[in-house]
Design a protein that fits this description.
- This protein is mainly beta.
- The chain contains 1 helix and 36 strands.
- A 7-stranded antiparallel beta sheet has the order 4-7-36-27-32-33-34, with helices on one face. A 6-stranded antiparallel beta sheet has the order 9-13-22-16-17-18, with no helix packed on it. A 6-stranded antiparallel beta sheet has the order 10-11-24-15-20-19, with no helix packed on it.
Length: 386
């Protein structure tokens, strides 16, 4: 049966053409994977938590404070497919060449923040992102926009190709509570702070989609134009009913990946309305841990594996049947037992803990299937083999 999907705001995805696309409030997102900037493979259902872009102008970099650079708006086709990529060009002085927000963003000590943006070279191969005074929000990363490398990094950073741009991210935990600046340096000669060098008056970078969000990992792009914008969290639950699911035996199969290894609990559960009968898969509160549970009032199967990178797609299957319970990952049987079970009233499949109220699943789901009979171990090996 269909899931009941909610998200009371617009959001973005990567569409089949490899472009960022806005999806209307209330519509789920099928986002396509990219390899070297090109769509490769089938899409996944993308589910994300609530996040706010604290950058007030995510696409108009002419509004930023400029030091020894010029900003030419609307100079390049952006990752969204429109003419909104801005060009930052260094002048010919011996100095730093940079732009920064001016308004800054308010950060809180002990809280993580993620900065992200899209950039490509126009004669200046490198761009450095830094935050405020040194050591306050410890972000300082230089990205190679020619080869797609991270040349140096303070804080956790990534770079990924999307079309002819690179998607650059940096994450760190603030050491202070204050308003702090987010600074973009042209760093053509790849030097260290304070990034001062002799400009040539012609080299620069194209830039698009500035974003700063509270969180230990970056999420999908949230456009802004004159103020902060919040993308609300998503839920998907309530699929099926009592006639869909077999209390005696069955298999829950999911192909999925996590948005981050952030040790938060994220669950997919087949349950009854009282939530005292469960067949559940989850990312657990331990690094890279995938768990499976069968519960009929008491625990009948409770196993886990820490052997996989949860940020890459995995095929998981959990089988329940009296005398034949098991858990498979990527073609291998993790564990199983012959415990008897007595399920009652399975009626709901949800991307949460089965209550609709907590442990929401955030990640990418390529496919989810339910079988109302218990498959053999050989069939489960085939089903889950990557």
């Amino acid at each position: 049966g269909d899931f009941d999907f909610t998200r009371a705001s617009a959001a973005t995805r990567i569409n089949k053409d490899g472009l960022i696309e806005t999806v209307a409030s209330g519509d789920s997102r099928l986002s396509y994977p990219l390899i070297d900037g090109v769509v490769s493979g089938c899409p996944s259902l993308l589910l994300e938590p609530q996040r706010t872009n604290l950058v007030q102008y995510s696409e108009d970099f002419s509004t930023y404070i400029k030091n020894n650079v010029t900003v030419t708006p609307n100079s390049s086709i952006s990752p969204k497919g429109d003419l909104y990529g801005d060009l930052i060009t260094e002048d010919s002085t011996l100095n730093t060449h940079r732009i920064y927000l001016g308004s800054g963003v308010n950060v809180v000590a002990g809280t993580s923040y993620s900065v992200s943006f899209f950039a490509k070279n126009n004669g200046a191969n490198n761009i450095t992102i830094a935050a405020g005074n040194i050591g306050e929000l410890p972000i300082n990363t230089t990205f190679d926009l020619l080869n797609g490398n991270i040349l140096s990094s303070v804080g956790e950073s990534t770079i990924e190709k999307i079309g002819d741009y690179y998607y650059c991210t940096a994450t760190a935990t603030s050491l202070t509570t204050r308003n702090t600046e987010i600074i973009f340096y042209i760093n053509r000669t790849n030097i260290a702070f304070p990034f001062s060098y002799q400009g040539n008056g012609t080299s620069g970078v194209y830039i698009y989609g500035g974003q700063v969000e509270e969180g230990s990992y970056p999420t999908s792009y949230i456009p802004t134009n004159g103020g902060t914008v919040t993308r609300l969290g998503e839920t998907a639950n309530g699929a099926g009913d009592a006639s869909t699911f077999n209390d005696s035996e069955g298999v829950l199969f999911v192909e999925m990946s996590a948005l981050a290894d952030d040790v938060t609990i994220r669950r997919i559960a087949l349950s009854n309305s009282a939530n005292n009968t469960l067949v559940r898969l989850e990312y657990s509160a331990s690094s890279n841990r995938i768990s499976a549970l069968v519960f009929d009032g008491s625990v009948k199967l409770n196993v886990f594996s820490d052997a996989y990178n949860i940020q890459t797609s995995k095929k998981l299957a959990i089988k329940y049947k009296s005398g034949d319970n098991s858990f498979f990952i990527n073609g291998f049987k993790v564990d199983g037992n012959n415990n008897s079970i007595s399920m009652s009233g399975l009626s709901d499949l949800s991307f949460d803990d089965g209550t609709g109220a907590q442990s929401f699943f955030y990640g990418n789901v390529k496919q989810i299937q339910y079988f109302d009979t218990a498959l053999s171990d050989a069939e489960l090996t085939t089903l889950t083999t990557i």
